[in-house]
Design goal:
Number of domains: 2
Distance between the termini: 44 Å
Strand content: 25-35%
CATH superfamily of the largest domain: FAD/NAD(P)-binding domain
Order of helices and strands: EHEHEHEHEHEEHEEEEEHEEEEHEEEHH
Shape: globular
CATH architecture of the largest domain: 3-Layer(bba) Sandwich
Structural class: alpha/beta
Strand order of the largest sheet: 5-6-4-14-15-16-13-17
Helix content: 25-40%
CATH class of the largest domain: Alpha Beta
CATH topology of the largest domain: FAD/NAD(P)-binding domain
Largest sheet: 8 strands, mixed
Number of helices: 10
């Protein structure tokens, strides 16, 4: 049996960037925190992400979450934050809505520029067919998601949080004094962690975690491919580029380029690289960036990982209706690294029953039961 005299106020399930940052903020607020992680910190979606962070959203909640998170990362040298920018290539039919989003970003102090396709050629050469315009934000960029997560783990431990790593959750039961979480370690040792509060930060596994407790939390895994070229000679230094027409993204990674595109049909627990997705992705990339034809693919440098998806591709954050003491911070649909720092502060406020510093009402889980949701923002 896994035994401990430590009696937590909250058990956090998941030590990706959301769970690790939340553990720090919860412990910092004075709560006794136990984190249960099935593998090691940042071993899931966090460690497999392309680690981009951007302010360029079109809804206020997302803009504020990104703004506050990026500000925190910028103040943390270990985060590896590099403001190399995001360049958005926007098709004509989306241009009016995109411009409205940029106006909203300006209201919140985000320095996004509107560019003509000709002006955007200063960042990367491309064929402008079908585009209504472009936007570029110089404070968007990249972080080292792995190092950042481990820094949050360090801070959480320093604040008194404890971690059960390489430990799977095998069952969850509602008890009079909170939630009983049954665990099994990699050695086979079993135990139970009981706490008044439970934070579901299990990423792509969040839906399954809810089902262990008899709760319906609409989060599921979606596999994503990241293709990498061989080192370019000479190298191209590119910001993150998104072609909103095709869904193709691309950026520099050292002397290489990495690129990809979401396959909406690739859901569920599928593992490994789907090389069949390379040809259709590359065809679309070449239509916009014909110079990419001279690059060579490096299969060994390519990788895959999971997104944690919801029906509207927006997260589920806050207390779970009808499940006293259960808090969700999951379903970020590829935006977890971008928003983790702000979400962690919000989780600590929710746990303390104080108003969140950013309104998270749009992310309540009951929006699905009520049918009050649509896809509202740039989803890439």
């Amino acid at each position: 049996m896994i035994q401990s005299e430590f009696s937590p106020d909250v058990v956090v399930i998941g030590a990706g960037i959301i769970g690790a940052a939340s553990a720090w903020r919860l412990a910092e607020s004075g709560l006794r925190v136990m984190v249960v992680e099935r593998e090691s910190p940042a071993s899931g979606s966090t460690g497999k992400s392309v680690a981009g962070v951007r302010h360029q959203f079109t809804t206020e909640t997302n803009i504020l979450l990104a703004r506050e998170s990026i500000a925190e990362y910028a103040a943390m040298p270990v985060s590896g934050y590099r403001p190399e920018g995001y360049l958005m290539l926007v098709p004509a039919e989306q241009w009016d809505n995109h411009r409205a989003g940029v106006a909203l970003q300006h209201q919140h102090g985000v320095p996004t520029q509107l560019l003509t396709p000709q002006e955007a050629q200063n960042h990367v050469p491309f064929l402008p067919g079908g585009l209504g315009g472009c936007s570029f934000c110089r404070t968007d960029g990249l972080v080292d998601a792995h190092s950042l997560t481990h820094e949050y783990v360090r801070r959480a431990r320093e604040a008194g949080a404890r971690f059960l790593l390489n430990t799977a959750v095998t069952g969850i039961q509602r008890q009079e004094d909170g939630w009983g979480v049954a665990t099994r370690g990699s050695s086979g040792a079993v135990g139970t962690v009981t706490a008044p509060l439970l934070l579901n930060a299990a990423g792509a596994w969040s839906g399954e975690l809810g089902r262990l407790a008899g709760l319906e939390i609409p989060v599921w895994p979606a596999r994503r491919m990241v293709f990498a070229t061989a080192p370019l000679d000479p190298p191209r230094h590119l910001p993150m580029i998104f072609d909103l027409h095709s869904g193709v993204y691309m950026r520099s990674e050292g002397q290489r380029l990495i690129f990809g595109r979401a396959d909406p049909a690739d859901t569920g627990w599928r593992e490994g690289m789907n090389w069949d997705w390379l040809e259709p992705t590359l065809e679309l990339a070449l239509e916009r960036f014909p110079w990419l034809e001279s690059a060579c693919l490096d299969r060994r440098a390519s990788w895959w990982g999971y997104y944690e998806m919801t029906p509207d591709q927006e997260p589920i954050v806050g207390r779970m209706p009808g499940a006293e003491g259960w808090i969700n911070a999951c379903g970020f649909s590829g935006h977890g690294v971008m928003q983790a720092a702000a979400i962690a502060r919000i989780v600590a406020q929710v746990a303390a029953d104080t108003p969140p510093f950013i309104d998270i009402a749009p992310y309540s889980s009951d929006r699905f039961a009520q049918g009050l949701y649509t896809s509202r923002d740039i989803q890439l």
